[in-house]
Amino acid sequence: MGKQYEIPLGAQHISLLEPLHFKFTTENEKIVDTTANIFYVHRGIEQACCSKFKFRQVSFVVGRVCGLCSISHSTAYSQVAEKLVKIEIPRRAKYLRMLVIELDRIHSHLLCLSHVAENSGFEALFMKTMQYREFSMELLEAVCGNRIQYDFSIVGGVARDLKPAVGQMILERLKKFKPQLDELVDIYENNWTLSLKNKGAGAITKEDAMRLNVVGPFARAAGLAIDVRNETEDLLPWKEVGFEMVLDTAGDVHARNMVRLHELYVSMRIIENIIARLPESALITETKAFPDGEAVVRIEAPRGELFYYAKGNKTQVLERLKIKAPTFSNVSAMVEAFKGNEYGSVPAIIASYDPCLSCTSR
Amino acid sequence: MKRIETSIDKVKTDIRDFYNPVLHHFMVINAVDLGEKIEVQWFFCDYAHPCEITAFCTQIQPDIEIPSIRDIVSSAWVAEAELVDLMNIKIENTPKGFVLEPDFESGPLRKKK
């Protein structure tokens, strides 16, 4: 047995987007053990939502939980609140929620992919991916009024309608993005240098993904078929607009890249179908009811299953709001997947987890 | 959501009898401060029937230690560590200080008396 060294990484580190601390025990550059501390940014949002804000205001508060998947939080909260006040939202609002969720998924996946490229030492690909991502930010601004933190889903429906000209612009920009995505798939799949870094790195098996209850692209890249869009037809009709699950089997960084890239094709198809089949109806269902009872909702955020639990007590203020972010479910697997890897692969592996500490700590 | 009411003595046995990692997805553990008591809820869903969410629920006195399920669900340690810090619940073999700093006020999600 060689000499073991403990190497800390974080909480502030050039390869990390958010504060996150790992301590790696290494032997001859191979990682034999890892500990993690991920809770540096606890902001007390759950408590604020149950004390300082009325239940209709909470959708704007939870939209601030995360800058990247803001729409997933505000939609999940709106859905759980709608269950508590017992209303069904108009079909047009459901379609528009799905539209923004998928636009959001495009920008989030491309951000993750660019970060993997950067942490793998491929800066040119990082810049190319970020350049191609910009269209999705511009489309989100055109649809919602903001590039991030959209305030689009509200209790009862959505805050803005989709103008026909914006719908047309989305279709044109998606058409332009398609060959760019083909180019990215070709590079991420076939580039020899990137393959050396990413193939086999940070791999987990399907059995481990099940045992550790992994969610999102992290799970699907290991062959575990879990995607909330496949499951919650009652709240948002994903299959109506062409959802298909993307799976891989290798479970490594390369497989995660591939799952995210191929999910972008699915997102594009969903967006095109939504615009083609957008129902005519109101945007919001009004109600004067106060939340009562308890309810849970799951939604597929870009990083995986986002879970909301809410309990009301027939007043304006919720009794309890619980948010479980996708990264929270993936912490155990994140720690285990480092074992046996070279220390030099750590930055790319972390980026491929696509961790969101703002969501996790709340 | 299917609620399964259980007791603090039986909850671990009930979860052990129910949980199969190939069939079930563990989501999270939640706690609701009811005033005199705290309700603890263990959430699972079924891979084959994912819309069916099962919650094992039990009400406890705030000073009672609840059993850890990490020997049944190996990823549950994160949710247990969170409850210990945010709800000031005692959980078997789970120290404070993973989510909040050890010197932070315990149980910020508990209701103020």
What is the structure about, briefly put?
With about 350 residues, chain A is of the alpha+beta class. Helices cover about 45% and strands about 15% of the residues of chain A. In chain A, the strands form three sheets. A three-stranded antiparallel beta sheet of chain A has the order 1-2-3. A three-stranded antiparallel beta sheet of chain A has the order 6-7-8. A two-stranded antiparallel sheet of chain A has the order 4-5.
Explain what the structure shows.
The complex is a heterodimer of chains A (362) and B (113). Chain A has one domain (44-333): Orthogonal Bundle (Cytochrome-c3 Hydrogenase, chain B), CATH 1.10.645.10. In chain A, a hairpin with a 2-residue loop joins strand 6 and strand 7 (304-313). The longest helix of chain A is centred in the first third of the chain and has 29 residues, at 91-119. Chain A has 362 residues and is α+β, with helices and mostly antiparallel strands. Chain A has 13 helices and eight strands. The model of chain A has no long low-confidence stretch (mean pLDDT 88). Chain B has a single domain (2-91), classed as Beta Polymerase, domain 2, CATH 3.30.460.80. Chain B has helices spanning 11-18, 77-86, and strands at residues 2-5, 24-33, 38-46, 53-60, 65-66, 90-91. The longest helix of chain B is centred in the last third of the chain and has 10 residues, at 77-86. Chain B is globular and about 45 Å long. Chain B starts with a strand and ends in a 22-residue tail after the last strand. Classes of the chains: A alpha+beta (362), B alpha/beta (113).
